[in-house]
Amino acid sequence: MPARLVRLVVKMPPRRSPRLVTPDTGSQLVAESSLARSTSPRRGRKPKKELCFDDDEANLIKHRFSTKRVINFVDSLGQPQKDIIKKYGFEFVFELTKFCVPVSFLEWLMVHTSGVTNEFIYRDKVIRFGKDMVKKVFKFPTGKDKVETYSHDFEVDLEVDELKSQYRDGRLFPISRCMSLMKDELDEHKFMRSFMLFLISTILIPGKNNDVQVEYLYSLRDMSKIAKYDWADKILDVVMCEVHRFHSLRNSYGRMAPKKQFYFDGCLPLLAIVYSDFLDLPQGSAHVHSLDYRLPRITHFTQADINYVMQIDKSSRSSHFGVRPFRDISLTPYCPFE
Question: Which of 40, 130, 231, 335 fits a 20 to 30 Å CA distance from 20?
Answer without folding.
Answer: 40
